Amino acid sequence: MTAPPLDPPLDPAPAPQPAAPPVRRPVPGLGALRETGRLFSLAVTTVGAMFRRPFQVRELIEQFWFIASVTILPAALVSIPFGAVIALQVGSLTQQLGAQSFTGGASVLAIIQQASPLIVALLIAGAGGSAICADLGSRKIREELDAMEVMGVSPVQRLVVPRVLAAMFVAVLLNGLVSVVGTLGGYFFNVIMQHGTPGAYLASFSALAQLPDLYISELKALIFGFIAGIVAAYRGLNPRGGPKGVGDAVNQSVVITFLLLFFVNMVLTGIYLQIVPAKGS
Amino acid sequence: MGIEVVVEGLTKSFGSQTVWQDVTLTLPPGEVSVMLGPSGTGKTVFLKSVIGLLKPERGRVMVNGVDMVNSPERDVYEARKLFGLMFQDGALFGSMSLFDNIAFPLREHTKKKESEIRRVVMERMDMVGLLGAEGKLPGEISGGMRKRAGLARALVLDPQIILCDEPDSGLDPVRTAYISQLLIDLNAQLDATMLIVTHNIDIASTVPDNMGMLFRRRLVAFGPREVLLTSQEPVVAQFLGGHRAGPIGMSEEKDEATMALEERHGVTGSSSVPRAIEPQLEPTPGLPVRRAVLRRRERVLGLLDTLPPAARHAIESSFDRTGHVVAGQAAPAGRAGGGPS
Q1: What are the helix (H) ranges across chain B?
Q2: What domains can be seen in chain B, in order of their start residue?
Q3: Per the structure, how many domains does chain A have?
């Protein structure tokens, strides 16, 4: 009764037991800290298991196809209006400042560096991650994962690794798609709607943009895909209670992923702007 | 031959609620043991602790030199390949057909060819009477079939230790009798150590070599079957008798007032009459003799002086009987159908 529980029960609140006089109040924030720690340990375990044989090729391909099929169309449809909005906004702003000729470079950089990885991550988390979380969660409450462990097969290696890898690869490829579609959308709206000059658009682009912008974009997509996959798997492996717990877990996994994404995006952008000099400077 | 499982001082709690504490017992190699207990005494938790799915706070479970509680995850995974666990509701993979479910451990752990896998899986499905259902999904079959499929999957790697979580729940008495016979037959064929968790008296009185009982957060008793079957301990006697008089209440424990009230209403057990011990099931004729029987005989003869007189007497008379059966090489025809009488 006095030993620290290694695996705390579903309800961390002290159970009303008359025979336990010293009431230990849980330190506030400890729960959140513990959850964070477990999330990180799952991330480390997953990365370790990625390099352990046998590798689940079949599962990876199936998951890859699944995530790609649920995200490609929404991603393309979202990126057109998003590219347009940025182009219009930046276009009207540069018009006021009298720097119209730089519209192209500014809007394309915004799309490739910021909008594209975020759109990809939101879609991966919302469409792919929620499905991963619900899948793993319902397997967990039906004791399928326990059965797998009992048969000496690690659920992390068998199920989580292929899903996380699939989320990462799809994110990287989807990021390319969104960048292209978004840029084309921005070009179309700037040139057709705002009567910008095609030449100026392209010239300003090649004047401001450089290859590292594309690298950081893909790196972000890779990291965001990893985060979306890990958070979905973590919440799916630890649902609280029955079927409703799985529903809650899916909800939380999407929210937690979004929060993490925007924070990590800020950090990555800050680091990038510090270490990679802007073009021409 | 099966592997010995040694449990030492195991204590498990969820938060501040202790499930059971200081459970110490040894499952002798190759023998069948049953863990009894009223609903909610942590029998399933015990099973999951033995196989390392749940981590008890104190104590250890030694299997083949690996501590299933404290050893590194890698060793535990390796040791689990020795186990076959039959879950209460089968725990089949809902997205796979029965065939793929049962073939899963073979595909994960062996490099057998697909034709070889097919042969082994069909053999096991025949064993549990599921031939013809291999293409069905777990959602399309009855609970009893799911249970049997779960058993087939647990058996497919020829485990050294078989754990069964309530093999009888949800089954009718006839199927329960068949399951009892199946478990004994399996033991004769595989010579695996078996632990069955149940609260079915029929299984408890006819299948095991050893019995234990969990109640009030501790192990009440564990020993040769005769010890519990002849026990005068109120909890054990009440449970095996299946009546209301005794310390077990509707919610796990009974308070003084309820006990007094029941006494006034004339609720009594038949504890004054010593229960007759049913003979243990024999393997179906044609199967090999259970090797565990001889080993157990040696072991129990060594223990005999430490046992209570009633149990000693029962053991001696049962040895006379089984000795006769082994010598005569012919099981009584009446037991061939396999039903507990």
Answers
A1: 43-50, 73-80, 98-109, 114-127, 143-155, 173-190, 201-206, 225-229, 234-241, 256-264, 291-303, 309-328
A2: 5-225 (3.40.50.300), 234-264 (no CATH)
A3: 1
